[in-house]
Amino acid sequence: MEARQPLPDLWAGIEGFDEEQADGALVGLLWDVPLAEAIERVVIPFLEDLGARWEEGSLSVAHEHFASDLLRRRLTALVHRHELLPVQGRRRPRAVLACPPGERHDLVLLCFALLLGEHGWRTTFLGADTPIDSVARTARRADADAVVIASTRTSRLTANREALAELAGDHPVYVAGRGADVEVARVLGARLLPADLVAALEHVVPRHRDGTPRSVVQR
Question: Could you give the domains of the chain?
Fold first, then answer.
């Protein structure tokens, strides 16, 4: 009997609102795959395909919410699992990650939090639609080494220009997403991250490497 394929099963599960089928297929796609590869080759293309299907009308808003929630639960379960144990005598850097008010798309940012955790960073993920004053308070309390703000729309960043500029005076602030560009970063006093998540790591993670092994996605 021919084995069932995870990707067709995933879309069939989503289209039929079959959580068990869709989740099982997603696990099959992520099983025993290095984290960076899983995000780059599975999660990001899936999110792009999901968005394209929604825009062309082949998926409803309900389907999009169902699929996003499914993926969010899988990724959230991995966040702390892939944060590395502290090295004795060495302070692990801390990153605070959030989307500004009005921005609901935070799954790519969640992927970035996972990758930072794999590289030894402690992450505080605040997620979607977060007031900038809340981000600032969290960054102060966490003594954050980096704050990453992601948005799909420029207006959601510039609408919080003063608060973000003030935050950038206290912590290194990075802006990312389709709403961020060189000019927005300049105005906010922030640093622009490239769209590619692996490339973005090189803008945040220290250049030196400590030989820490890569992690593998597990159930």
Answer: 6-79 (1.10.1240.10), 94-204 (3.40.50.280)
3-state secondary structure at position 14: helix
- Per-residue pLDDT of 55-109, as tens digits, reads 888 889 999 999 999 998 888 776 555 455 555 556 789 999 999 999 999 999 9
Q: Which residues pair with 148 in a beta bridge?
A: 97, 174
Biggest CA–CA distance in the chain, Å, is: 62
Sheet holding 146-150, edge to edge: 122-127, 94-98, 146-150, 173-176, 191-192
Dihedral in degrees, nearest 10, Cα atoms 92, 197, 139, 102: -160
CB–CB of 109/59 below 8 Å? Answer: no
pTM: 0.84
